[in-house]
Design brief:
single chain, mainly alpha, 176 residues, 76% helix
Length: 176
């Protein structure tokens, strides 16, 4: 029974990693589309005197998308900002405990933010609230991306907090 649970747990961790890696790739693609749409807007505006109505809105939506799709993978990879003054001054055993406590606090904050955002997703969905933009889309789509980012980052912070070896990955896949 224990081996089955261990294998099931490892499978879930690998699934979480694959989901986050896929989201990171989509977030990266969103950045590429931002560059392309801004370039298109500049050419249309300054060379053809025909500015677009949608480029600015698209960029703002894609910026939010890229941030919250990429955040879990960056959390997994330790790509977040960290101030290590206190852990650097402590013995290794205590430094790891302080870092783990920090990861635990970060997980709690992300879960709490996710809880708040989940309520907003529900409200926006029920009301059918849409964006005030050139191309109107449901707001809950973007709020759901924020929820995705917070909840998946929280799980990576938990994985980092409780991993005794300081390696929250299931395999060495390297940076994207």
């Amino acid at each position: 029974m224990g081996t089955f649970l261990t294998q099931a747990g490892q499978s879930l961790l690998k699934l979480h990693d694959a989901l986050s890696k896929g989201a990171f790739i989509l977030g990266s693609a969103a950045l590429a589309v931002i560059v392309a749409s801004f370039a298109y807007e500049v050419v249309m505006r300054y060379f053809f005197n025909a500015p677009t109505r949608w480029a600015s809105d698209l960029v703002s939506f894609l910026l939010l998308t890229s941030v919250f799709l990429a955040a879990p993978w960056l959390t997994r990879e330790g790509g977040h900002v960290s101030i290590t003054l206190l852990p650097d001054l402590l013995p290794a055993k205590w430094a790891r405990r302080v870092i783990a406590a920090g990861f635990l606090v970060a997980a709690i904050v992300c879960f709490w933010a996710g809880w708040i955002v989940s309520g907003e997703v529900r409200i926006l969905f029920e009301r059918g609230t849409r964006t005030l933009s050139a191309v109107s889309v449901p707001k809950w789509w973007f709020t759901a991306l924020i929820l995705f980012g917070f909840i998946n980052s929280a799980f990576y912070f938990l994985r980092r907090a409780f991993d005794p070896y300081g390696d929250a990955t299931t395999e060495d896949t390297g940076n994207a």
